[in-house]
Structure formats: C-alpha cells, structure tokens
Amino acid sequence: MIKLEDVTVIYNNKTIGIKDINLEIKKGEFVGIIGSSGGGKSTLLKTVNLLVKPVKGKVYINGKEITDLDIASLRKVRREMGFVFQDYNLVERASVLNNVLMGRLGYLSSFQSFFNLYKDSDYTLALQALEEVGLEDKIFVRADRLSGGQKQRVAIAKALCQQPKIILADEPVSNLDFKTGEIIMNYFKKINEKQKITIVINLHDVNLALKYCHRIIALSKGQLLFDKKTGEVDDEL
Ligand code: ADP
Ligand code: ADP
C-alpha cells in the first residue's frame, strides 16, 4: 500500500530530513512513528503524499510509483489519503459540517454549502463521518466554538469524508491533554478496525504508540532506528 525505497529528503541542500529510508506498509496496518523532535517523523509522513520531494529514492502507493507524478495525477493519489495535523487545520469561522465537506470538495465547500450546491450523497458522507467521531449533534456549530479534542475529531471526520484508503496523522494528540489524547487514539483505533483504513501516525509519546499501534517505526536523525511489531519493541526502549 505504501512503499518507500531508499528515500532521502534534504532541505535547502543541507539539512537532512530523512535518510535512506526503506519501508513497506500494508493495507489495514496501524503504524506508529516515534522519535525525538527533529528525528524526521514529520518529513517521513509528508514524503508519503509528496508534500516534500525526495532528492533520492522512490515512493509507491498501491504499487504505483508516484515520485515524479505531475500535480494533477498527484492530486488524485492524495485524494485517497486523509491528513490529520497537530493543529487541526480547520477553518475556524466555518461550521463543523462545512469543515468536513471541505475534505471532500476542497475549499469551495463553504460557498457550495451556502448555496446548497453540495450533493445529498456528500452530505450523507459528512454526516456518517461525524457520527463516527460522535459529533453528529454539532454539525452547525462553528469550529471556533469547539474544544481542542472536538476540533481534532472534526479533522478526523474531514479526513474520513474523503473516503480515504490511508490516513496520515502528524502528532495529532501533541496539543491535547493526556485523557483527550487517549480519546482521539481510540477513534483512530476504531476507524482502523472497522473500516480497515491504513493508519500511519506520528507520536511523541512512546507509551501511546505501544498501547495503540500494531507496529512501531523509530527514527533518529532521519534514519531508521528500528521497525518492529509492537510486542517486540519493549526491550529496546
Ligand atoms: P520531527 O517530525 O521528528 O520533529 P522533522 O521531519 O520535522 O522531524 O525534521 C527533521 C529535520 O528536518 C530537522 O532537522 C528539521 O529541522 C528539518 N526540517 C524539517 N522541515 C524543514 C523545512 N521546511 N526546512 C528546513 N529544515 C526542515
Ligand atoms: P512538526 O511539528 O510537523 O515536526 P515543526 O515544528 O518541526 O513541525 O516545524 C513547523 C514548520 O516549520 C513545518 O512547516 C516545518 O516544515 C518547518 N521547519 C521545521 N524545521 C525547520 C527548519 N530547520 N528550517 C525551516 N523550516 C523548518
């Protein structure tokens, strides 16, 4: 499903983002990426959907190399990947519904929904996604009225509304308190188990990775420290 072959990313011709990374992630996996700040976690995730471009190596999605795709083809590939950010990345002044529809329709969706231009099928998908994260009673609430945990649930619904095969999450719980972080992790777990969506999640907190992820990839200074099933990593940490 996701394959990186000998991938190196270098910023500004000097700073190593990731170096010589080889890995393969199969459909339905729930993978945690760990490592200290600056280790390359964020760069790794951004490489999977080519938000950053490798200087060396190849990126494959569903068996197809995407490293050198033109922007139009890349957009199609990205549509099958949901991205969840640390800072939620919502339009604060838009409703929960509009934010979720944006995952599907792009940034026209406020305009489209204002004029009821979205299809019933889009609305149904948005509602289903919001039900999945328990926010179906908040659809007309503005995003800026929500707590951090609720905002992240909207962001997850927004990703789900794209009907993705893969969800990439970049430190999605780092801005939340521990209890709220666990709630968010449980939603990822449920989505992975129920919908078989492949999830790759960057986590600062190793214990959360050990508790929820099936496989853990550790990075240090842009390089692979280890890549193991969760049950096999305890002695390394
Ligand atoms: P992590 O997500 O584990 O904190 P990052 O992937 O953000 O690690 O960073 C890996 C390395 O790449 C760090 O040295 C960081 O400073 C550098 N880096 C990340 N993004 C950029 C950028 N846009 N420009 C220059 N250097 C960057
Ligand atoms: P993340 O939380 O995703 O690891 P960071 O806090 O490392 O992000 O960086 C925030 C933003 O600054 C990102 O867009 C990242 O690409 C960029 N960035 C990170 N390190 C550097 C750097 N050394 N020089 C320039 N930009 C950087």
Automatic annotation (TrEMBL):
Residues 2-237 form the ABC transporter domain. One of its GO terms (cellular component) is plasma membrane. The keyword Nucleotide-binding applies. InterPro entries: AAA+_ATPase, ABC_transporter-like_ATP-bd, ABC_transporter-like_CS, ABC_transpr_LolD-like, ABC_transpr_PhnC, P-loop_NTPase. Keywords: ATP-binding, Cell membrane, Membrane, Nucleotide-binding, Phosphonate transport, Translocase, Transport. The keyword Signal does not apply. GO terms for molecular function: ABC-type phosphonate transporter activity; ATP binding; ATP hydrolysis activity. NCBIfam families: ABC_phnC. This is Phosphonate transport system ATP-binding protein. It comes from Anaerobranca gottschalkii DSM 13577.
